[in-house]
Design brief:
- This protein is an all-alpha fold.
- The protein has one domain: Ammonium transporter AmtB like domains (Ammonium transporter fold).
- Helix content is about 65%, strand content about 5%.
- It is built from 21 helices and four strands.
- The strands form two sheets. A two-stranded antiparallel ribbon has the order 1-2.
- β1 and β2 form a beta hairpin.
- α3 runs antiparallel to α4.
- The N and C termini lie far apart (about 80 Å).
- About 50% of the residues are buried.
């Protein structure tokens, strides 16, 4: 914080920081920011906790949900102690800031010409960092050693996420060039690439689990997806740090794009597979949310609809067609298809944002002319070179995030493998939650008790229709 700023230098020192509601803090904006941030936090807890715990096979429900819950808590502590300043603090080098305690007293955060309490900014950026790590976990469900995950979270946050955040959002070398309104590159592309890379190093699930991995509770899965969808109101609506027109536009665009993407994905399922899949609808919902994120407040609603159509079709093709035909994709067991729903949709959204970004909306959001405008408007204004320049920066940003996450995630997995096994033991993979945590998701034996291991081992459940002797 620069204490020589005119907004503070004209006041006595005791009036600058001793008022709980100072003149520079808009109560409406502050209230919206805290609300939006909490909505984003609820996407992870309970949203992704429920989604992951329901979308996997029954024997992995507890482990999958717990990975999300642990990630949320671990990221918070690391974020406050050192990672926030590495992402948004004083520059250490062009790609990362200096580590340090985030909540230094009497420090405010300046955001594009006005001020918000530092605690607001730390809180908001924390929930973004947390959901990035938890999304990454979707690639690793059903076989990663939980102790390895406990080490992975702080290491990846420190060495990977902070670099992407500082480079594009902080004071890094790409900050004045890349259009990434709310995290298409920083959050979704990084989680998709890192998840896919970590899945390669951890190894696949057991063959039977990989071939037969039905959700244990589709209704609960939809409940978790609902938290994710509606929580995105805060994700994109909170990014301007004000309850203004950009926030309202971002919220509308978010839901319009998501609805379009979901309907396109379901339509393609019905055309090709002759059935409408609930899981497919959730995947289409997620790709729509991801695709609109880098451009939510800076594109027109009609562009959001087009982005939704592409986010419901292109990731559908990579997941449902290309993935099944490609030996490269088949070698990596990405449990929930995070590469397709986040990496592919994130790149798509970042490139489309560079194409559709409207000039006046960019100026309203960033209060400068350093971004864009989108290639479409440059073609209209016969300034093609400027539009192509912006598209080049969008591509450069994507390449940087992909390369950094692939390399650093591999190094992290290598280091952890020297301490603990990345993958669970085969006997733990056979049993699941009970072997790993001593707990099961559903009590189905006796009066709220688990099935005793000695009985479960010798149980013989007859197939439907088979005569019992």
């Amino acid at each position: 914080m620069n204490y020589t700023d005119p907004v503070f230098s004209s006041l006595p020192r005791n009036l600058q920081f001793n008022d709980a509601s100072p003149f520079w803090s808009n109560k409406g904006d502050n209230a919206w920011q805290l609300t939006a941030t909490t909505m984003v936090g609820m996407q992870s807890v309970p949203g992704l906790v429920i989604l992951y715990g329901s979308m996997v096979k029954k024997k992995w429900a507890v482990n999958s949900a717990f990975m999300a819950l642990y990630g949320f808590a671990a990221v918070l502590l690391c974020w406050v102690l050192w990672a926030h300043n590495m992402s948004f603090g004083t520059r250490l080098c062009p790609i990362v800031g200096r580590p340090g305690f985030a909540m230094t007293p009497n420090i405010l955060h300046r955001f594009e010409g006005y001020y918000v309490p530092k605690a607001d900014y730390v809180y908001f950026q924390f929930v973004f960092a947390a959901i990035t790590v938890i999304l990454l976990a979707g690639s690793l469900l059903g076989r990663m050693n939980f102790y390895a995950w406990m080490l992975f979270v702080p290491m990846w946050l420190t060495l990977s996420y902070t670099v992407g955040a500082f480079s594009i959002w902080g004071n890094g070398f790409l900050e004045k060039h890349i259009i990434d309104y709310a995290g298409g590159f920083v959050i979704h592309l990084s989680s998709g690439v890192a998840g896919f890379t970590a899945a390669y190093w951890v190894g696949p699930r057991q063959a039977h689990d990989r071939q037969h991995f039905p959700p244990n509770n589709i209704i609960h899965m939809l409940g978790g997806a609902g938290f994710l969808w509606l929580g995105w109101t805060g994700f994109n609506g909170g990014s301007p740090f004000a309850a203004n027109g950009i926030a309202s536009l971002a919220i509308l665009n978010t839901h319009v794009c998501t609805a379009t993407s979901l309907l396109v994905w379901v339509s393609l399922d019905m055309i090709v597979y002759k059935k409408s899949s609930v899981i497919g609808a959730v995947q289409g919902m997620i790709t729509g949310l991801v695709c609109i994120t880098p451009g939510a407040g800076i594109v027109e609603p009609w562009a959001a609809i087009l982005m939704g159509a592409m986010s419901g079709s292109i990731p559908w093709y990579t997941m449902m067609v290309l993935h099944k035909r490609s030996p490269f994709f088949q070698r990596v067991d990405d449990t929930l298809g995070v590469f397709h729903t986040h990496a592919v949709a994130g790149v798509l959204g970042g490139l489309l944002s560079g194409f559709f970004a409207r000039p006046n909306l960019l100026r309203m959001m960033y209060r400068s002319n350093r971004y864009g405008p989108g290639l479409l408007y440059c073609i209209k204004d016969r300034n093609l070179s400027r539009g192509l320049r912006q598209m080049w920066f969008q591509i450069l940003g994507a390449l940087f995030i992909i390369a950094w996450n692939a390399v650093v995630t591999s190094l992290i997995c290598f280091l952890i493998s020297r301490i603990v096994d990345l993958r669970m033991k085969e006997e733990e993979l056979d049993i699941g939650d009970d072997a790993v945590h001593g707990e099961e998701a559903y009590a189905l034996w006796g009066d709220g008790e688990k099935t005793p291991a000695s009985i479960r081992k010798h149980m013989r459940i007859p197939s439907i229709g088979r005569r019992q002797k």
